[in-house]
Each structure stands twice: as C-alpha cells, then as structure tokens.
C-alpha cells in the first residue's frame, strides 16, 4: 500500500508539472508574463483571442505577445502600429502587405501575415 501511495503521488506530481498552460493564467503587474505565444489582456488574463491579443483592445505588450488590427492601408508590422495583413497576404521586411516574392520571401514577417 505504501508503494502504491508513493507511485500515485509521483504520477500526480509529474502531471501537475507538465500541465499545459491555460487561458486562465494571470499576467501584468504583480503577476508577470504569460507563457510564450500567449497575450496579456487589458484586464490581466493570458489568452490567444482577439480580446487578449489586439493592441486596440488593450493588450499589454510588456507581459505577452500582442498584435495590431488588420491593415487597411497595405502597411504592416511593428513599424506600422503592429498591423496585420489581411488573410492570404504576406508582410514584407519593409512593412508592406502583398502576395509577391518580395513580400513572402526573405525577411517576411510571419507574425504579421502569411509567409
């Protein structure tokens, strides 16, 4: 019985340690950063929805990943307010949306469009 108890306890500990991050994790001042790939919402919660990630919704870039709104003028990337290209378009290294090799090739910014 002692062996079974120890084994069960070990399994539970391992499961807890390797558990995947959840969208209910807190972030911000007093909590710290979100896990990689997650955004910190205006209200201090980690997640991956537009409510968490869009700068226009108050995403806190110092505590997680943030993205801008969809570009309406063909410009993208950090130099253009973190705007994202419309679906199917790439964001060039110089911050322009498009579908040509100059946009989708070397230097394409995958965080802001398709590459």
UniProtKB/TrEMBL annotation:
Q: Which residues form the Chitin-binding type-1 domain?
A: 24-68, 73-115
Secretion signal: which residues?
Answer: 1-19
Alphabetically, the GO molecular function entries are: chitin binding
Q: Name one Pfam family in it.
A: Chitin_bind_1
> Mind telling me what this protein is named?
Chitin-binding type-1 domain-containing protein
Keyword check for Disulfide bond, yes or no.
yes
The keyword Disulfide bond belongs to this UniProt entry's keyword annotation: yes
Task: Write out the entry's keywords from A to Z.
Answer: Chitin-binding, Disulfide bond, Signal
Q: InterPro entries attached here? A: Chitin-bd_1, Endochitinase-like_sf
- Disulfide bond residue pairs: 34-46, 39-53, 76-91, 85-97, 90-104
